Structure prediction request, 99 residues.
Amino acid sequence: MLFEWFNAKDASEFGTSMAEFLAQRIPPESIPATDKKPLKKAAEVISKLHTQAARFRSEHKLNIYKRAKLANEFQWKLFSLGYDKHVVEELTKELLRSL
Prediction:
């Protein structure tokens, strides 16, 4: 029982898959680092991100550790794909709002 609390494999994989989902629809080069409202252009994709996150939340019991692992995987995958720090922070906040 206690070990299941720390088993965040599904959450980590979901975080990575969400970053890849986002990158396929909004490549890093399409969001300029100087854009003050970078997420305004991506409203439809972010809406889909919220929907998928809500579905994942309903299917998996997420504790604080698993949410943190999910967000961490999402964030670092976006960094590795070349997204700007400000954009990554905003997208991670959006994902966490859905969880």
